[in-house]
Structures are given as structure tokens and as C-alpha cells.
Amino acid sequence: MPCSKPVGLFDSGVGGLSVMREVRRLLPAEDLLYYADSAFCPYGGKCPEIIRTRALAISGFLISKGVKLIVIASNTTSAAGLDAVRERYSIPVVGVEPAVKPAVSATRNGNIGVLATGVTLACERFNGLLERFGEGVRVYTQPCPGLVELVEAGKHENPEAEVLLGRYLDPLLAREVDTIVLGCTHYPFLRPLVEKLAGSKVRVIDTGEAVAQQVARILENNGLANSRKAPGGENFFTSGDPAEVEPVIRLLWGNPRLKVRRVTTP
């Protein structure tokens, strides 16, 4: 019997849509709920305690909507709040982390660059990744304030985005990195600019596909997959102003008719 309950995903804003599109591609039959915590975005400059509080509140909302699995589609939120969400709620919870392990396998010269928020780069979870997988390579990190805000405004293809991204890439390219990790779920929407500025010899990696594969494994192993043949639907929620958030989600998701409902979580 197919499990018709939806999969829930959330992020500080619209960045988690980059993960959601991979989930949709791999699991076309699943219904998906997405929550953009736009009233509190960006998370990158907030303290971990606030991020954990938001993660717990939003997870509670998604559970109230009957989701069967939660994807914390945010590196920053996963770093600060994944453990707390798993401790409080009994349903499966999938987090996101920078693709250090795949980057180590992909690099040819041993020089890897990581673009991420300051919270992600400072957290114990990221340091643990470096300890487990970073032996024998050189990992150069670059915090990127301002990039999330540009994606949130739908300006990820603007000259302003290219100029700011260039400032963050220049120090990494000066280190001759041959692999760049997009360590924030907002950044895949900047991928064309990253590839343009970094050049064809630099490989760019994000984690959306790997997260989708993990979601599929958990659903299948727990008898939660929806095996119907009809395509699943999507519902979108935000803590922000739908008049501002809806046009950006429509742009990034590629559906000019979708609706975004405002839901305030405590």
C-alpha cells in the first residue's frame, strides 16, 4: 500500500528549493510540503540557539500537517538544529551537510574550496567532516555574507551577484582549488555564475542529489514510499509576506501559478 502522507522540507528561506527539486526529480509520486522561514531569514548571522528554536517550531508545524519525513534543507539549520529535531520528534529527519567527502574524491590536486555561511563553517559538525574526510587534502573555507539575500530577492543572475561572488571566489582560485563545494542550499541557484567565474577546469559540487537519494532510501526501507503512478503535488508555506516570497518561489520553482500561504510558527 502506498503511503500518501507528504514529505516536509524547510529552510530559512527559498534556498531549500534546490534540494526539493532533486527530491521531486527522484520521487515524482510524493506530495511535498515546503516551509520558507522568510520572516527570520537569513539564519547565517543568528546564534545557534535561535536557529534551533526555529527548527523545532517549523518541524512541529510540518508534523501537524501530517508529514512522514522531514528534510532540513539547510546546511546552517542542520548544523545548529538537526540533533535537537531528531531528539524531540520520532519521525525520520534528514539533514544537509557540505559535500566534503565527494569533493575529496573528486579533487585532482588536493585543493578544495568551500563556500558557506559563517555558522556552517564554525560548527562542530563541519569540523567533524574535515576530521573524517579531509586527511591528505587542503580545504579552504570562504564565508559568503550577502549571497543568501540576493537569492532571496530573486537576484541570483544579476550583475550584483556576479560581483559579490567574484570577491568570494578570488581567494579560493588564488589557492588553485580545482573543486568547489556549495555549502549552502541557496548557492546552487548561483551555480551558473560560479562555473562561469571559476572556469571549466574547476568542478562544482552540491548535495541536493545525495539528499534526495537518502530520502528515497529511508522511505523505501520504512515502507513509507508512495507508489502511486500519478504525480505528486506541492504546497508552499512561509512565515514571511507571501507578496514578497511568492514571486521568488515561482521563479525558482518554475511555476508561475503556484500559491504560497503565510503560516506563523511560535
List the helices and strands and how they pair.
Elements: E1 7-11, H1 17-26, E2 32-36, H2 48-64, E3 69-72, H3 75-88, E4 93-94, H4 100-106, E5 111-116, H5 118-122, H6 124-133, E6 138-143, H7 147-152, H8 159-174, E7 179-182, H9 191-198, E8 203-205, H10 208-221, E9 234-238, H11 242-253, E10 260-262
Parallel strand pairs: 1-2, 1-3, 2-9, 3-4, 5-6, 5-7, 7-8, 9-10
Number of helices: 11
- Quote the CATH topology of the largest domain: Rossmann fold
List unreliable stretches of 5+ residues: none
Number of E-type strands? 10
What letter string, H or E per element, gives the SSE order? Answer: EHEHEHEHEHHEHHEHEHEHE
Mean pLDDT over the residues: 95
**Biggest β-sheet: strands ordered side by side in the sheet:** 4-3-1-2-9-10
* Span between termini: 35 Å
Corresponding CATH architecture of the largest domain: 3-Layer(aba) Sandwich
Domain count: the total is 2
Fraction in beta strands: 15-25%
The main pleated sheet reads as: 6 strands, parallel
Query: Roughly what percent helix?
Result: 40-55%
CATH class of the largest domain reads Alpha Beta
**Rounded radius of gyration (Å):** 18 Å
Shape, please? Answer: globular
Structural class: alpha/beta
